[in-house]
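Quick entry, no commentary yet.
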Amino acid sequence: MNDATSLSVAVRIRGAGADESPLPWAIEQLRRAVQERGGALVADEARARAVVELQAVPAADVVNEEAFQLARTADGITVRGAARGVAYGITELADRILFAVDPAQELLDLHDAEFAPATPVRSVLRAFSSDALDLDWYRDREFWTAYLDHLAAHRINRVQLALGMTYNYSHDPGVYDNYFGFAYPFLVGLPGWDVHAVGVDAQERARNLEALRFASDAAAERGMEFFLSLWNHAVQPELEANENLKYPIRGLADSDTADYAAQALSVILRECPNIAGVTFRVHYEGGVHEALRTDFWTTVFAGMASCGRPVKLDMHAKGVDAPLLQAARSALDQVSLSPKYWAEHQGLPYHQARVRDLERARPADTDDLAGVTRNTRRFTRYGYGDFLANARDTDLIFRLWPGTQRFLLWADPELFAGYGRESTIGGALGVELCEPLTFRGRKNSGHGPRDLYVDEQLHQSSRDDWRKYAYTYRIWGRLLYNPCADPEEWRRYLRGTVGEAVERALSASSRILPLTTVALGLSASCNYYWPEVPTNLPLLAKPDNSYAFDMPEPFDWAAASPFDPELFETTRQFVEGLLEGAPSGRITPRVVADTIDGLADEALEAAASIDPLGDDAPQRRRVALDVHIVAHLGRMFARRLRAGVHFELFQRGAGGSHLEAAIEQLQAARDALSVIVDEADGIYFRDLGFGDRPTERGHWRDRLMQLDEELIELQAIRAARIEGPAPDPAVVDLPPVRISLSESRLDPSGDFRLQACGLPDDGEVTFHVRPLNQGAQWVTTTATSSEGRVGVVIPAEAFSAYPLQWYVTVRLPGSPPVNLPGLGDNLCGRPYRVVSTA
């Protein structure tokens, strides 16, 4: 072959035509990558250094249309699969070319490989929260082009645009900034309806609709599904009664809202033919009284169905009951539910083994507004509820909410691989990430720069603020696609920027806040609990604290529940176990604190190797700063956890030395937070606005003042009480024992045998078993091992409706109990087993 250029590539197409979506887009990405590396796509194969042959086959002829094969040939490379799979193969080649040391040799050295998706739905949600901050990017074609290019190149196959997430309307009678809140009048005018948003004329509506059409068309061109989220259907009295409303909705009565919404939605879906699906918030926070909601949504679903083409329906799962599901199935063929993954936060990859007591079902009452969701279906608010039954005709897609990581960088391959494995639990289809900055500007907090940087070297426009998280999107898409992906898929990108130090620093720091939020569930609501900028919960009981509405009495630190109370322990439970000599086997606050400290040390050690200079110096600084902030947040939480244990021991009479230790640890927590204040000064905006409550805005400096106040209170207690030291109850570590767990189905009964092996003969094992249903209770059976093993038989009929979920508590003589299989050293394991009973 003639080496006319160092990187000359020809594209040969076999099978499907070059115009089949998303092939044209993918070929253009290849052309850009080759051109950026100084080469060119050439038409004459004889002049090409390498030939890329595309063998696109009909989707009906492959097992999975997103799978693809790469193979070396005599003159180049073959990419084979359905059109979507081939597009992934082409963009994989483009990515390798962009980041290879020698791109031409990279193509020539390619090894045969097969790729297939493990997670069917790999989604990202982007929200419109503020007209001040979001209209620019919403109407910007360059933004959508670059943003969707990046997502699609890394195999994210769904993007969701959320409108109306700005407020929880039924709880916010003082709504002000409501652009796209009740979205329809901002997009279309309907003949026969004099409904409009004051200040939004026909020309502006047309611009908004055209932007929506462009975004959805651009997603389809890249082989992605485009979903439109409509989270609010409250018009009156929540909005019209508010004289301060920025964009009042006029001309619509409550009784007509369902008919109007159904017709407007049908028009939008016809005008935007590449909107593949619509998500609704169907519980009371969407503005529809629950006594009326089945009739309301039956009408709206019928409007969707009348648009003249198939459209997928997705319902936010909170509060969904049988009548709503029946209404959805009657109107539309493809119905899914989207439950929250870890309440309104981002936790570890596994799904909570038990919801908090506050989320348990309650008896029905006469509350017409929120009766179903707040009571009989309460356990569906913050998890998968009872939606993972074996026999079901609705799909399930999890949604990671933006309570834990709203703007600080986070990206860990092992964590994201865990999400890839766990998002298909019980036959679920996948997971959607509420991307960083999702709630930026919410509830009229749209002041200052959207990306929150006041340092001009770090600040990016609203068109480009997503680029800070480019590495996050890369590994999110690729590790959902294949949790066992070759690390080269992300390391080739890092090699050209800051390399191994960035991967290590972000990997360690990214596990700190997910672990913290699972172990310390101060509030399920991201309106109140924001671990990035945490409002203080005092050690002393204060019924008026910011979290009191969402925690058990007596409203103090020791009572705060983990988000998974099955596997993690409150401070009060831990101390009771210490004092009574009866530890539970659950993960303790001390273990969590030690783990967080280890992650913080690892992150800071790696961050010290990030060179702040170079062509990509701003991004290096963003990485290093955010790693430092999260690491010191971790140190603060670790010391708060230890302070809580010591203070609870002091409260229970274990001695004044524990008060001294509590003050010492609280001072250390204050010192860690002070480091963040100093490092962020002059870099991040002084009011980090994600809402209108003090708990969802402000700055670390404000939280520092809260810790100072608490220190003064504890020092006053010390001054009033002098007492000699008392011994700290001992904590005994479990000796290393290799215990294996297994399950098997017994013939012909079909019953299940659960078994633990590798035990001494006097080991005691408690089997914890339940259906994969967060509305069900765990059942326990305890047995003693013989000949190194112990087992129990579980009747199949008891678990025929759901998969079977189980774990064990192992008690060995002279050692505290431990729960197995545990989270694993990387915190990304599944701490229970799930067995198919279908």
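second:
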Amino acid sequence: MAVPGPSLLRARTVPHRLRTLPATLISARGRLVIQSILLLACLAVFALATVQLRVYERDVRRDTFTLGGSIPVPVLRFTPVGQPLNVVAVIAHGYSADKEMMSSFGVDLAKQGITTYAFDLPGHGASTVPYTTAGVKEVVPRLVTSVGEVVDFALAHGPAPGTQLVLIGYSLGTIAAGDYALEHPNMSALKATVLVAGVLTDRLTLTTPRDLLVLTGQFDLPGINDTAVRMMVTACGVPFASVTDTFHCQGADPTAQRMRMVLPGLDHVGIVTAASTHAALLSWLRQTVDSRIGASPVDADARLRWLLVGVLAAGLALLPLLGLAASALGLAGGGVRADSKSAGRLATWRDGVALIMALVLGLAALRLWLPWDFFAPGPWPFGFLAQQVSVDVSAYFLVSGVALLAALRFVPALRGALVLPERWSALKQLLLAGGAVLFLYLTVGRLSGFAWENLTLSPERLWRAGVYTLMAWPFFLGLRAIVEAAARRFGRGWPADLGATLLVVAALIAAIIFNFGRLSYLGILLPIVAIVLLAFIGIATWTRRLAPRSILLTSVMQSLILGWLFAATLPLLA
């Protein structure tokens, strides 16, 4: 049989390439079209959720301002659009929260005709005043002073003479609102005090505060429900064992009603936005303040659902956005710089051991390094950040990260894991990471203030977010290097990612246990941190398809988001 010559081989080969080339182009173009459609769909859902939240508030006007008293207090006011009742409410938020977190109360109260004032406690939210400069002895007086400034303004600008006042506190805010009420037992304008998930424990009497309602969740933080029982024991003069989950007493004074309610299925955080919480609040105010309260329908659960839909839509939009941006930047298949001698040494059990040892070293350093005083600014040399808990956690990530990168760099058996992209690919990954987080900031960050904590950053918190990002990045760079090495070795990275994420969460739990007096409040932020870490398993799997060896992209995104959360939440010190 005759063997085909070179010219015949070329004739047969070229048409084959020409036949396959259009299919490749169509496939790439089709992926871009699908990603564009998904992005537009997610943005449409996000816009719909935003519109629905605004529609829910159509009978309420928001405005913000700062009171310039002895303590400057940022205020968020909810004003009924229609004819208001001659009632104002002042709401104090909880620890590591801000005035926007209480907007669910503010909107539903304003729908009843109650002009409502939420405000930032010192060191929280947009407040420029430190939480404390002299330790715990200064905290409560500052809280009470800030409540007093808002109360004075609210009564001075009431709808009519003889304005009635309702005080509401949540968690830490129960100390602020409760102590103010106790310090003003003869204040005729004060008609009712409501303490949600309260921590106020002393100085209650049989007549003050007036018409006291205490609400807690069935699954509230340890000790909160016992604290509520002790409040009833003191305020009603009854034995501890007689206080039930739904308990009411009426003193000789007609304004000395007391009620304790445990709301089924709610925890310390969910109690803020739950419809059952709002129903109990409105029912109490209808009995004790004005019978017209509660006439307008509210649905706090529906409002929260739209918020969650909007946040989820923005999060999902990140995936097609990354895909389109990676294509535009030419990141697919970006070059990789690797040591030829170590490039073949991929993830082994030693990588997992290195991660565990780095986490353990960080725990040991945290135990020895952290100040014992909860109100100390932070471990040296990071005291200049002057923020509670966030500095400690960022320092933990820094110590663990330096140890992990040192192992990946200097231990011969581990060197193959840390493979960085070439210069231009690295710059493109950094640009894409920053743009992706900016997208989340402009969507999730701004939407969150409608029914949850405001995650946008004031100047005092913005620069801290940058420092926390730099402190956390070495750890997440090393973590991503190990996971990507596992993906190259086994063809999939998510099992290693899941295992590494669970190790990090377990290490943070251990940090709380070993430093409970210092880091107990990390438990408030830990569920959010865990959700972010778990979400990045999916994001990392997606980006691995878009840009091979994308450890810079994913590690910078993780560090930016965690730095953002750490800076936005915990209170600032002097």
